[in-house]
Amino acid sequence: MNIGIIGLGLIGGSMAKAVKTHTEHTVYGCDKIESIQLRAKMVEAIDDLLTPALLPKCDIILIALFPDATVNWLKENASNIRRDAMVFDCCGNKQQVCDAGFELAEKHGFTFIGGHPMAGIERFGFAAAQPNLFHRASMVLVPKSGTTIETMAAAKAFFLSLGFGRITITTAQEHDRVIAYTSQLAHVLSSAYIKSDTAMSHTGISAGSFRDMTRVATLQPEMWAELCLENRQPMLNELNGLIDRLGQYRDAIQQNDYEKLRLLLYEGSQQKALVDKLK
After folding, report:
1. What is the distance between the alpha carbons of residues 272 and 277, in angstroms, rounded to a whole number?
2. Do residue 125 and residue 223 come from a single domain?
3. How far apart are CA 13 and CA 31, in angstroms?
4. How many domains would you assign to the chain?
């Protein structure tokens, strides 16, 4: 098959490398930065540049751009996508992208399925891309109601061939509600946590807890600002809940209330045990 990839950053670049490493498919890729396109071809992450003339030859198209840029690309290129092609995005939010993708797919005849590869590292850009980034990771797929079993089977088979260990099917609304907690809130919390003046004195007096709490503070600000604002209501729900819960711990410490603080910590420990059983 011919695979077209738009955007060769961490996710798009890793998708390209995964396809080239684990399959026999041909990969066409493009990026707004010319030097990245040239480097991707030089290291054989792509077979050739994805041009408008090659777009109709693609069996599968992966769009690895920010949400707004993804919607704009779809609007500009939908008429050149082959009617039997499958198109996936890789965005961290799904409602906005899926609304546009489903509408354009219906109008132009191709299949659009929302996607979100649940994998990443605290670096970004093509230089950080790696062929095994998705090893045993979950790939979230958001199909339009009525998508055939055969189409979904083909989509699952493709992503499993890249090393994904699990395919999760959900709706755009449910994805965005959960991702606000599992990803976006974690990045905001890490960013706020590292801003303490005490962080500058951590050397020699910190270990795993500090590393875990600050790991995702290394982020791409433009992307995470867009994701959080486009998923505003779920994010506000999670932030308000976190602030309320933190207030309970603050009050217990302020009041020197050992039993209240012990109970709060115990409840957190018990909740972690329950969550771990879901794996």
Report:
1. 9
2. no
3. 10
4. 2
Going by C-alpha positions, the residue among 192, 169, 187, 171 that lies closest to residue 235 is: 187
Q: Which domain holds residue 123?
A: 2-170
CATH of the domain at 12: 3.40.50.720
pLDDT in tens, 101-116: 999 999 999 999 999 9
**pLDDT (0 to 100) of residue 123:** 77
Q: What is the DSSP string of 9-27?
A: SHHHHHHHHHHHHH---EE
Q: What is the rounded distance in angstroms from the CA atom of residue 105 to the CA atom of residue 152?
A: 16
Residue 31 binned pLDDT confidence (cut-offs 50, 70, 90): very high
> pTM, whole model, 2 decimals?
0.92
Give residue-wise pLDDT tens across range 41-87: 999 999 999 999 999 999 999 999 999 999 999 999 999 999 999 99
Q: Where are the alpha helices (DSSP H) in 201-257?
A: 208-214, 221-230, 232-254
Residue 21 sits in the same domain as residue 38: yes
Gap between the Cα atoms of 69 and 63, Å rounded: 9
CATH, residue 258 = 1.10.3660.10
Same-domain status, 210 and 263: yes
